[in-house]
Design brief:
Blueprint (H helix, E strand, L loop, with lengths): L1 H58 L5 H14 L8 H4 L1 H10 L5 H5 L3 H38 L1
Length: about 150
């Protein structure tokens, strides 16, 4: 009889210990998810703020159209939102300009070009920008509104 009582007490202690350990793990998991959610929300806010500032600079002609479009498209695609919105169809002119200028040399590749080739690419890029300018500029208020909405949370 004392064996059974001792075994039941020992089993109860093990169950209590495992329950406490499981509860602790669940608490730590909840904290981890909250931290990840905070980091995600901060990233969304920062990206949205950058998109908003770039769109304003484009409207005020403080930023070249092609440079702004490259930055905005890449930032929108980097938003950690699930499911990812279809920015290609939401902002078709911005995306079309992005595709049209994506073949031009940038950064180190541009440095390797001759002056003549750089001028040639600049002229071609400016021609493309002028074709898309009014349509891209018409999408900027919508882009700003979307980024402002994301910044609100």
């Amino acid at each position: 009889m004392p064996w059974i009582y001792l075994a039941v007490c020992f089993a109860a202690l093990i169950i209590i210990g495992l329950s406490f350990y499981a509860g602790r793990l669940l608490f730590l998991l909840k904290q981890q998810k909250e931290r990840q959610n905070n980091v995600r929300n901060t990233r969304i806010y920062n990206i949205s703020e950058s998109v908003h500032v770039i769109a304003m600079a484009m409207e005020q002609q403080q930023c070249e159209l092609s440079e702004g479009v490259i930055r905005i498209v890449n930032l929108l695609n980097a938003l950690p939102i699930d499911p990812q919105p279809d920015f290609k169809n939401t902002y078709p002119h911005t995306h079309a300009l992005f595709i049209a200028i994506s073949g031009f040399a940038t950064l180190d590749d541009r440095k390797k070009l001759s002056k003549k080739e750089k001028r040639k690419q600049d002229m071609a890029r400016e021609q493309i920008e002028s074709e898309f300018e009014s349509n891209v500029l018409s999408e900027l208020p919508s882009i700003k509104a979307y980024s402002a909405e994301l910044m609100k949370g």
